[in-house]
Design goal:
Shape: elongated
Strand order of the largest sheet: 5-7-3-8
Radius of gyration: 22 Å
CATH superfamily of the largest domain: Zn peptidases
Distance between the termini: 15 Å
Number of helices: 10
CATH class of the largest domain: Alpha Beta
Largest sheet: 4 strands, antiparallel
CATH topology of the largest domain: Aminopeptidase
Helix content: 25-40%
CATH architecture of the largest domain: 3-Layer(aba) Sandwich
Length: 312
Amino acid sequence: MKFLIEGEEEIGSPNLGKFCEDHKEMLKADIILVSDTSMIARDIPSITTGLRGLAYWEVAVTGPDRDLHSGLYGGAVANPLNELCKLIARMTDDHNRITIPGFYDDVAEVSDTERIQLAENPFDEVKYKEAIQVVQLQGEEGYSTNERTGIRPTFDVCGLWGGYTGSGSKTILPSRAYAKISCRLVPNQNHEKISLLFKNYFESIAPKSVSVAVTVHHGGQGYLFPIDHPAYLAAEKAYLKVFGKIPVPVRSGGSIPIIATFEKVLGIKTILMGFGLSSDAIHSPNENFYLENFFNGIKSVIQFYHYYSQEA
């Protein structure tokens, strides 16, 4: 057994890929096991068979060389914040499809058979909305909620700022505006290609009254794991032994970019045996982990090694 531990996952693991390249011989293995995924519910174990890829950018829109008085200049000089919002609005259409030319060219369409299988996964839309306190869900037309988060790409503004944000009021026309933007990608989409498509399109549609600069940040490829692989069959038995139920295969909406790198560089598949729950509030101030799943996770991984030694 070999343990590989690193602390840069949230910034795209910028050094781990090179480490793998430099230590291929040392990292030889039959299978990689990662537990950075979740289960459908406490009483419904699941194995993640797919991850979405990721592309991430920072955008800067610049107008005048300094903040201006919005009364003296407003209406005559372009407001970078206004223009940034207009540009972002043009990235999706009324059907919530992404408008970047060529964006969908390489999207792997999921078969009707697999969509039927995905629809069999337990999902309570009412509880889903209640858990995050929203009244209505929204997404690409023609797809269910699970399909939107598992098999379709997305476009999201992760942060937006500029101008005066202090207490009270200050009537200015800001000099600059910024946004952090990401796309979740699906298998067959290359994050480097998508990064370039977005950058070229976003900069090309900007009005001449402002200047736009797009900086490409980290990204990663999507990932698929076959359910007939010996490691999947071993994991399935392990979950059944510990949780008393056969796990459901699911595709996650999240991204773990290094997983695709492992396969590309080391030639090894990764089995994703996660034990998180929707109630864990991941990436939120009160992030937590259910203790029962923590201990059941330990038991399941032990059982996995036992069964994998028989399957492989």
